[in-house]
Amino acid sequence: QVQLEESGGGLVQAGGSLRLSCSASGRTFSSSVMGWFRQAPGKDREFVAAVNWSLGTTRYAGSVKGRFTISIDNAKNTVYLQMNSLKPEDTAYYYCNTYPPRGEFWGQGTQVTVSS
Q1: What is the pLDDT of residue 28?
Q2: Beta strands 10-13; 110-115: pairing state
């Protein structure tokens, strides 16, 4: 069974940076696209970024475009999300998954808190 584990979250001041990691373990699976999602307090989970490793293309939510970068290290079975110029509105729990996401792959996520 495939498991996805997020890490790298923490507390940072506005304008700062963080790099999130998503490590995959267990059995391999076929998926050309991996993504990051987030859920802020009192709000629904939303799409943040996705990468198609087969085509080498990326897609970002308008709110993070130009500030966040998604990438994959296939040899390490790890997906990254580099977050720069963080804003208080980026505060949320961040999750990785396939894109479109599959319910069985949701993990515990990693908390990102951006202070003013």
Answers
A1: 64
A2: parallel
